[in-house]
Amino acid sequence: MPSVFAASTWRPPDNGRGTNALTRRQRRIVDGAERTSIVVAALVDTNILVYRFDPRFPDRQKISTEILRRGIAEDSIRVPHQAIMEFVAAVTKPLVGAMPLLLVQDAIREAEEMLRQFTVLYPDEMLLRTALRGAVAYQLSWFDAHLWAYAEHFGLSELLSEDFQHDRLYGTVRAVNPFL
Fold it and tell me: What's the domain of life for this entry (predicted)?
């Protein structure tokens, strides 16, 4: 399956290093009239990245592909480094009685494409402290609390995931299950 990431020529101006992703403004031409708009970015969970390559769930694969393509085109997706690490682990793990979704070298190539095409967010001490508090306050697993903390810490208002209660507000972050 061709990579959704490899087909794009979009590159973030700073490759995700040092610039607060939420302060970027994007200009576009719409129906011949110039308009200025603020891009509101969403954080994506690992499951969005994995479903892109999972033919066992064609509807989710299609939705994930569209989310990621639109995210590249509109610079509207942020990917936590945790999701890239989990992606490589998930797609290279053999399925029950079958091969893995991707070979290791293909998974690494896809991860490298994600690093080039999306703004990747990295944790700091405050993000980890937020995750610790979130795990207790919202009774989330450590990995889900850590993921939520990225969105909370970086001021992202939406978290795209099937692992959270749909449409629930966790702090300032609304969880959205795009597969419903």
Answer: Bacteria
Q: How far is CA 114 from CA 35, 58, 80, 140, 173, in A?
A: 28, 21, 11, 26, 23
Domain covering 21-176: architecture: 3-Layer(aba) Sandwich (3.40)
Q: Where are the domains of the chain?
A: 21-176
Cα R_g (the chain), whole angstroms? 16
- Give the CA distances from residue 45 to residues 48, 50, 148, 175, in Å, rounded to whole numbers and listed in that order: 6, 9, 9, 10
pTM given for the model: 0.78
Encode pLDDT of 148-161 as tens digits.
Answer: 999 999 999 999 99
Size of the chain, expressed as the number of residues it contains: 180
